[in-house]
């Protein structure tokens, strides 16, 4: 029937459903029902069945992971996608894996999180003025979503940033994939992204007008706190702390 909302399995589900969400909580609820990318659905559910030995007693979440943090956040952190045995297991972004260990420790040290660890969705963790989200909400094989999967998932992030936009003052982007996904999205949403578009780099900062009055948002690049990057010291705890601290400063969450 014309005008009927598509099933969650339909590739058009995010594009139709995301703009209908009038609140962050409604958007989060809709995200968790999405089955639009067959490869990602199969992978996330397989990971939930074929568990790592260390997590054999866990009942895996094995669904899309919504954003995490308050609906009036002034600072957004944009990652890549959930880990198969991290967020896909726990039900919360950057939770239960080494990337999350580094990220939440830094946020806690900056006074932006209530505790330094994040182990599962009911562990009592709160974020202060910060919301964590991602361009792809399902765990991908080898941590590599396809371009088509990124584009199918894109309406969720578009709507999330639209709902956050009135109070948003800074976005820290973790990794090149998130940077390359975010800037075209902002341009299509009417933000005045510079041309040529700024290239990703650790500590790179772009001040981007949102298209609403004189409001501008600082978009800041940061190497992804992956286990590999932290092990090789491509990204150190001090480097991560510095970039997140800069984001908090320009967002008005922390004195400079």
UniProtKB/TrEMBL annotation:
Keywords: 4Fe-4S, DNA damage, DNA repair, Hydrolase, Iron, Iron-sulfur, Metal-binding. SUPFAM superfamilies: Uracil-DNA glycosylase-like (SSF52141). InterPro entries: UDG_Type-4/5, UdgB-like, Uracil-DNA_glycosylase-like, Uracil-DNA_glycosylase-like_sf. One of its GO terms (molecular function) is DNA-deoxyinosine glycosylase activity. Residues 66-244 form the Uracil-DNA glycosylase-like domain. This is Type-5 uracil-DNA glycosylase. Belongs to the uracil-DNA glycosylase (UDG) superfamily. Type 5 (UDGb) family. PANTHER family: TYPE-5 URACIL-DNA GLYCOSYLASE (PTHR33693). GO terms for biological process: base-excision repair. CDD domains: UDG-F5_TTUDGB_like (cd10031).
């Amino acid at each position: 029937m014309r005008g009927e909302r598509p099933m969650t399995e339909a590739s058009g589900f995010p594009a139709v459903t995301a703009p209908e969400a009038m609140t962050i909580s409604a958007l989060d609820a809709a995200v968790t029902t999405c089955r639009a990318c067959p490869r990602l659905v199969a992978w996330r559910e397989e990971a939930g069945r074929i568990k790592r030995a260390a997590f054999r007693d866990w009942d895996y979440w094995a669904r899309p992971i919504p954003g995490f943090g308050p609906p009036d956040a002034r600072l957004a952190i944009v990652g890549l996608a959930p880990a198969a045995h991290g967020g896909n297991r726990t039900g919360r972004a950057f939770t239960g894996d080494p990337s999350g260990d580094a990220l939440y420790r830094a946020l806690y040290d900056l006074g932006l999180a209530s505790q330094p660890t994040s182990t599962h969705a009911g562990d009592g963790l709160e974020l202060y003025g910060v919301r964590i989200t991602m361009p792809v909400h399902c765990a991908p094989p080898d941590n590599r979503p396809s371009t088509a999967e990124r584009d199918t998932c894109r309406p969720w992030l578009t709507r999330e940033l639209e709902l956050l936009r009135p109070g948003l003052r800074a976005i820290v982007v973790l990794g090149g994939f998130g940077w390359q996904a975010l800037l075209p999205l902002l341009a299509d949403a009417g933000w005045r992204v510079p041309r040529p578009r700024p290239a990703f780099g650790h500590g790179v900062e772009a001040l981007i007008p949102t298209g609403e009055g004189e409001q501008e948002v600082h978009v800041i690049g940061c190497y992804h706190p992956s286990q590999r990057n932290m092990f090789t010291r491509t990204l150190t705890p001090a480097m991560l702390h510095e970039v997140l601290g800069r984001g908090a400063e320009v967002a008005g969450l922390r004195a400079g």
